[in-house]
Write a sequence for this structure.
């Protein structure tokens, strides 16, 4: 549940890195050749040009970074097939069309079943979602409860609580969507959620191994190139980029692929289960061992049970990879406004700073 969220912390998360381990190119004989650093995404099919999407060429690129947080390392060569991706995150207007057409009810609008959450206090068993509220001054930044508050009645139509609305926010990214909500939208639109590798390939905009989606400087010449937090988090937002919370999509310049808001504004769900560096390293090592006359594992894809937070064994809820950072990423706290940045999030979480976009293969 959202109250278990460990989101937005600047702590060095013991995480990896490699959402899909290597492809092992193998011959028909017992001699096998491994391409240790090549990850191949699933084969895809050509599609007609969809509205509001851009066709990306696919190819090999350097995924991850060794210059920031440990969960992004090591840098490795990854290959993705060509795919289409939404030019912008899904907006409130688009999500409203989906809800109107399907009657979909988001997770944040449903009271949690105590049977699914052992230890849940009865007074907390109400529909709601996590809302960010800045503090009045400096706080212990290891305690996220100082700025994250579970608000009954907060949902995508009421982003700050039951008395709030999305009036005037039609072109802002939809928020308070759990992973299943994002996937339901994608399926309705005959699309899918991106893999972590696809998302990062898209965010880099064709720049090889750059720190940011636009180059190697966060704010070149003082230019604000994404919606993030300028100032001291979580109490002093200078809003040099003009926005304290979400911003209309396309407010900032597109990246090299013509995609908007890949960085900042809202974190975006991907389809990949999150795994720790140590676990993934073990899987890779096992996959490398040659096995005569046996077909090696061509691709290790993390499973849901692999993604469960080992520090919260009582909470067996899987975690997916979030990408892109949000309007809450701050140089003073959490520098995850970069293509390589990643964060684990339990799939039932919804907040004021998580949204999504879709792909088509
Ligand atoms: Ca901002």
């Amino acid at each position: 549940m959202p109250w278990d969220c460990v989101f937005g912390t600047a702590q060095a998360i013991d995480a990896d890195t490699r959402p899909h381990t290597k492809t092992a190119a193998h011959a028909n004989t017992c001699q096998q050749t491994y391409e240790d650093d090549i990850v191949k995404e699933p084969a895809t099919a050509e599609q007609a040009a969809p509205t509001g999407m851009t066709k990306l060429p696919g190819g090999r690129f350097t995924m991850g970074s060794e210059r920031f947080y440990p969960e992004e390392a090591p840098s490795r060569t990854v290959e993705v097939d060509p795919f289409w991706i939404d030019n912008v995150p899904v907006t409130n207007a688009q999500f409203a069309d989906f809800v109107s057409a399907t009657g979909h009810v988001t997770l944040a609008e449903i009271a949690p079943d105590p049977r699914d959450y052992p230890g849940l206090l009865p007074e907390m068993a109400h529909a709601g979602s996590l809302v960010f509220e800045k503090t009045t001054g400096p706080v212990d930044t290891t305690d996220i409860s100082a700025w994250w508050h579970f608000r009954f009645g907060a949902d995508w139509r009421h982003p700050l609580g039951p008395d709030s609305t999305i009036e005037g926010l039609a072109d802002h990214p939809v928020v308070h969507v759990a992973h299943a909500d994002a996937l339901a939208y994608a399926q309705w639109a005959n699309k899918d959620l991106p893999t972590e590798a696809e998302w990062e390939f898209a965010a880099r905009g064709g720049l090889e191994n750059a720190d940011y989606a636009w180059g190697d400087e966060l704010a070149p010449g003082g230019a604000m190139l994404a919606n993030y937090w300028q100032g001291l988090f979580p109490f002093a937002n200078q809003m040099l980029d003009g926005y304290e919370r979400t911003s209309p999509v396309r407010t900032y310049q597109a990246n090299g692929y013509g995609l908007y808001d890949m960085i900042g504004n809202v974190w975006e769900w991907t389809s990949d289960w999150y795994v720790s560096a140590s676990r993934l390293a073990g899987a890779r090592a096992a996959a490398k061992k040659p096995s005569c006359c046996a077909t090696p594992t061509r691709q290790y894809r993390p499973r849901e049970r692999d993604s469960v937070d080992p520090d919260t064994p009582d909470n067996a809820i899987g975690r997916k990879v979030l990408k892109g950072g949000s309007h809450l990423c701050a140089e003073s706290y959490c520098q995850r406004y970069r293509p390589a940045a990643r964060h684990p999030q339990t799939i039932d979480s919804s907040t004021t700073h998580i949204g999504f976009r879709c792909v088509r293969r």
